[in-house]
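The following record pairs a protein chain with its ligand, magnesium ion.
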Amino acid sequence: MKLSLHNVCKSFDSHVVLDRVSLSLEKVHTLVLIGPSGGGKSTLLRIIAGLEFPNSGEVEINDDRVMFQEEALIKHRRTIGTVFQAFNLFPHLTALQNITLPLEKVHGHSRAEAEEIAHQFLVRFKLDKHSQKRPAELSGGQRQRVAIARAVSIKPRLLLFDEPTSALDPEMTAEVLDIIKELREEGRDFILVTHEMGFARQVADQVALLAEGRIVESGPVQQVLENPVSEQSRNFLAKVLKY
Ligand SMILES: Nc1ncnc2c1ncn2[C@@H]1O[C@H](COP(=O)(O)OP(=O)(O)OP(=O)(O)O)[C@@H](O)[C@H]1O
Ligand SMILES: [Mg+2]
């Protein structure tokens, strides 16, 4: 993908959460966003997903400018697959229905087509035995795999992952990271927010470090993690890479 953010600003009341965020990436499959809590990572992802309006600034994906108007955003959101930390799934629907619902209601597939597509992903993510379970009957790792299946099944041009493993224990984290790595190897485009630095190193093409609403560092993964330029990123990385 080609991604361009130009002076994206966002405030909640008088609280500035994103302060002229700019980033221009010509050709990137995996952008990993890191940074301290409260730095604005989730807000930025939500703006890119078209779920939140910036106060000013521009977002372009593959030279396509995101128009922050309700009608245009409805279309835009259909092209983006999102997976968040937790509470992704509809609790009253089965794993299968969680995947088929958007395919039918938003993407215009027939019930049979939607079930066929969902089935392929359930098998691929080793969830076929669980297709009739509701989220409460699934493990955390299984839930996130269903959420990823749902996000990928709509054939998005861009996937957004916001700390998809932060609510999981290590074993389940590995199950989910394996899938994300597989998607990476398939050449899918995604932006991932994570605190898993080891994983970031494995999958990222580019890393951007967002702190206090500003991008304080960005570049190829090696450069950002090993030779950060700013004091702020050196401090942050020293903390997260310590253990
Ligand atoms: N809907 C909202 N209303 C008011 N303030 C908000 C809202 N969403 C986010 N904020 C504030 O914006 C700031 C940035 O939040 P954000 O969730 O983007 O940070 P983050 O980098 O994702 O943090 P974390 O690593 O903890 O997930 C925080 O101070 C948060 O309290
Ligand atoms: Mg967040």
